[in-house]
Amino acid sequence: xxxxxxxxxxxxxxxxxxxxxxxxxxxxxxxxxxxxxxxxxxxxxxxxxxxxxxxxxxxxxxxxxxxxxxxxxxxxxxxxxxxxxxxxxxxxxxxxxxxxxxxxxxxxxxxxxxxxxxxxxxxxxxxxxxxxxxxxxxxxxxxxxxxxxxxxxxxxxxxxxxxxxxxxxxxxxxxxxxxxxxxxxxxxxxxxxxxxxxxxxxxxxxxxxxxxxxxxxxxxxxxxxxxxxxxxxxxxxxxxxxxxxxxxxxxxxxxxxxxxxxxxxxxxxxxxxxxxxxxxxxxxxxxxxxxxxxxxxxxxxxxxxxxxxxxxxxxxxxxxxxxxxxxxxxxxxxxxxxxxxxxxxxxxxxxxxxxxxxxxxxxxxxxxxxxxxxxxxxxxxxxxxxxxxxxxxxxxxxxxxxxxxxxxxxxxxxxxxxxxxxxxxxxxxxxxxxxxxxxxxxxxxxxxxxxxxxxxxxxxxxxxxxxxxxxxxxxxxxxxxxxxxxxxxxxxxxxxxxxxxxxxxxxxxxxxxxxxxxxxxxxxxxxxxxxxxxxxxxxxxxxxxxxxxxxxxxxxxxxxxxxxxxxxxxxxxxxxxxxxxxxxxxxxxxxxxxxxxxxxxxxxxxxxxxxxxxxxxxxxxxxxxxxxxxxxxxxxxxxxxxxxxxxxxxxxxxxxxxxxxxxxxxxxxxxxxxxxxxxxxxxxxxxxxxxxxxxxxxxxxxxxxxxxxxxxxxxxxxxxxxxxxxxxxxxxxxxxxxxxxxxxxxxxxxxxxxxxxxxxxxxxxxxx
Length: 768
Hints:
By secondary structure, the chain is α/β, with parallel strands linked by helices. It comes from Glycomyces endophyticus.
């Protein structure tokens, strides 16, 4: 599964509305009017002075924007509820200042967030009201409401503060239980942590699900943060809850490769002459790793026995580079190959047998198994393990997908592994709707949610048809607010079956009662970005240097900010073609080059995505390719189809960044005048080992690695018709999500119809 994303998550209405709360007086759950002459629960935030005069609270002595009066709402606001917050404000006579902001500081185990209820609302010397709506999706350890001003030395009054419950937290008690609807097919699970066990979240969990997976509490860093010191408390809480509510538990995970595996795993132990230094790949080093696996898995087996019915023994060992086959993790490096996978399963089987739990099932788990190339590499590994007598019981398909992912390909993977006779489970399901980044308009939200409902209808119809092949289907999160795909930079992503307010979505009804689904709004094809790519008179030499051959090329720019800083690295990209295939020259502006990231996409690099024939079938098709090249010419390719063209590349540093030059081989029938090809170009900006920005030519969804549906179009021509090959973005907007033909005009006209892109039927096997 993906690594833990920091910070608790809010409603899509995180850009909170400014309409006053309209609710009955008896719904007020907290109020302050200062009529008793004291500040009551209000306390200074920063070194300010609070004083009550004439039934109002005055704040003076501010020296920073965030200074002001504050009140604790931790016990007032419950997860899943929607609250109206209102307060009367005015600036003190003679004080500077013209705007005030109402904010909630939200503390969770993941960190601190600041949620604006009202942002810099106009205010003056006369009383005015600040009001907005607020909700949290999961429990917080502390919620502090405060009033601040961008005018540092401003003084101001507040009065008549109320918190009104608009929608009580709670679930829909009368809708069908998912676990009952699917009882004859497979168990339905959810990935959770302790936040999901309390109040309304716990009610939703116990009503609809009969299996749970610990999202993070059973990973190596949670169970054994320091060698020899085991911490089971958080995991025990989940197991005890599951047992009390008649649920099965699926364990995740013993062996992984990410930052959620402590560094000590890969270092020499205390007492060794090289203590603390990285392990090498000698027999002695491998034995250290084996003994650590034995201790770790043995402790879990002894502690839980058969209270956990299945485990992901090994997670994500297949490379995204199909040609590479295995992920070149520290495990792979130390064992000089994939033998550690065999060892982990051997150790796990022996440990559970010794603990009197021989029926615990042992799974190998990975994402992208719907991709034919990655599926085949995992299949070959499992086939070899079975032939060698390795005790692998099952295969887990993570299934982090989107609305364009081919259901046919998901089904083909289930059928292929069925031939091995192993158990199978869908372990981490979510279906991204392609929501834009922070601040982007998204008028298609409701249409995408309806579309998602139809996708879940077809996906679960396929799963239920093959229910005999599936042990369980687990969604990766209880509701949208708890999804790893939701973040403050992508606040509208909604990949699960229940909303932030714990209510059923169209995705739920697609599973439970497809007849309840409305029609997907009328199809309207985006005006995809398009560039004419000219035929090269002379093929450029792939040497990392710009030469005369590039002078006749078309040029586009990676100006669409997909992730992180808008000021991050970008590139001008020159494009040519000939009978051998496509050529691209990235001239990247990036003043600080970094390759410290553990993953190649976290390093300064460029990517080419190519869909020969512009088929846009959904996922990666037979000839589709994702090609990544770093500024040092380190090459990594994505989940490419088996017929994807070979990449040739070169890279060189420049005074302003670096240059990457690539050639992608193409079939003769595709490398011809008049052909069109799906194309996306991307620049990854790495800083101190983390990816801090992503810019693309066109696709704003962040899903280019997963689907070809949102890429631009390259037309192979003999000569271009306009300077640069016409490679500008569509006039309807720089973002695909806003590039619906006529959408702007409809919005201006006040039309209520929402148009959305209906994906090609081939992606989801939709009927008419």
